[in-house]
Automatic annotation (TrEMBL):
Disulfide bond is among the record's keywords: no
SUPFAM superfamilies the record matches: DNA-glycosylase, Nudix
Cofactor(s), names only, from the UniProt record: [4Fe-4S] cluster
Name used for this protein in its record: Adenine DNA glycosylase
Gene behind this protein: mutY
Enzyme Commission number, as recorded: 3.2.2.31
Record family assignment: Belongs to the Nth/MutY family.
Sample GO molecular function, one term: 8-oxo-7,8-dihydroguanine DNA N-glycosylase activity
Organism: Sinomicrobium weinanense
Gene3D superfamilies: Helix-hairpin-Helix base-excision DNA repair enzymes (C-terminal), Hypothetical protein, domain 2, Nucleoside Triphosphate Pyrophosphohydrolase
Length: 345
């Protein structure tokens, strides 16, 4: 059997039963692929089911308010995916009469759709022999062929895409693409791959040369940014404050408490003297208290957010305040959601 035949045969025998595998509807394939970008299947599945129920068609998604979509997405991370999802849904619904492009090249023109997603939709929904290359595929190909070219280098990206294109089953591209991704996910896993029971083990270069733990090779990005967030929980008995993040930064369009960002951890006197604090409090009497003694470190892909929550209790009415009972209705970063849950608004 050829490589592609072995992969496809393995897939039919071992694939997980997932809702998006029961359809070729490009809307559902697109929805699942966007959600599974940089997200494990077990984490993404509940979100897919929620979105499928709330927005059964691309028209439903297009007509939904962005805040509602962001709230439903809350906790899945990489929120630009949700904003792009909404943007593209409106394009498909209002400019294309609900019809998705049917080719890889045309799909690539959609906002938020890259090489991998375009290949997945083109092959699964339209039977185009467009090879998918994701982390799972890189791992399978690097190990089987013994390729040590870094997968995130320009040369590596081009090479693995070409190799996948040579291997794809042109008669059954959907089964092959889903098969090799699934194979990398549950057979040729990053850690503790099932080499002894692998149908490719007799020809696997990495297994033969004892390189399984060393492949694939990835250039490490050592640039890690540290940011220091001080959230001010401005409150009285009934109200608190939330603002929407407008700038093109992490968590764009999500809501948060008033924020003082600094270049280091601040002490109480630093908060009291800060212009943003004075602008919020004015001349009103207040009680300021640090909620968490140690900073909460929220780790994102290229930055760590060191967060301190400060409670600022006022007696007077809060201008622009919202009822505390409504806080949980707003779409917020998971960092804020965890605090809200613990603080029991």
């Amino acid at each position: 059997m050829t490589f592609s035949e072995i992969i496809t045969d393995w897939y039919h025998q071992n694939k997980r039963e997932l809702p998006w595998r029961k359809t070729t509807d490009p809307y559902r394939i697109w929805l699942s692929e966007i959600m599974l970008q940089q997200t494990r299947v077990d984490q993404g599945l509940p979100y897919y089911l929620k979105f499928e129920k709330a927005y059964p068609t691309v028209f439903d998604l297009a007509h939904a308010p962005e805040e509602e979509i962001l709230k439903l997405w809350q906790g899945l991370g990489y929120y630009s995916r949700a904003r792009n999802l909404h943007y593209t849904a409106k394009e498909i619904a209002f400019e294309r009469n609900g019809q998705f492009p049917s080719t890889y090249k045309e799909l690539l023109k959609l906002k938020g759709v890259g090489d991998y997603t375009a290949s997945a939709i083109a092959s699964i929904s339209f039977n185009e022999a467009a090879p998918v290359v994701d982390g799972n595929v890189y791992r399978v190909l690097a190990r089987f062929f013994g390729v040590d070219t870094p997968i995130n280098s320009t040369k590596g990206i081009k090479y693995f895409k070409q190799l996948a294109g040579e291997l794809i089953d042109r008669d059954k591209p959907a089964a092959f693409n889903q098969g090799i991704m699934e194979f990398g996910s549950i057979q040729c896993r990053p850690k503790s791959p099932k080499c002894s029971e692998c149908p490719l083990n007799s020809s696997c270069v990495a297994l033969r040369d004892q390189l399984v733990d060393q492949l694939p090779v990835k250039i490490k990005n050592t640039r890690l940014k540290h940011r220091y967030f001080n959230y001010l929980i401005v409150q009285n008995e009934q109200e608190t404050l939330l603002f929407q993040r407008k700038k093109k930064d992490i968590w764009q369009h999500l809501y948060e408490f008033p924020l003082i960002e600094s270049d280091k951890i601040l002490e109480e006197k630093d908060i009291i003297q800060h212009p943003e604090f004075r602008k919020l409090v004015g001349k009103n009497p207040f009680e300021l208290s640090r909620y968490n003694k140690e900073a909460v470190i929220h780790k994102l892909s290229h930055q760590h957010i060191h967060t301190t929550f400060w409670t600022v209790t006022l007696e007077d009415h809060i201008k622009g305040g919202i009822p505390k009972a409504e806080v949980k209705a707003y779409p917020v970063p998971v960092l804020i959601a965890n605090f809200v849950r613990e603080y029991e608004f």
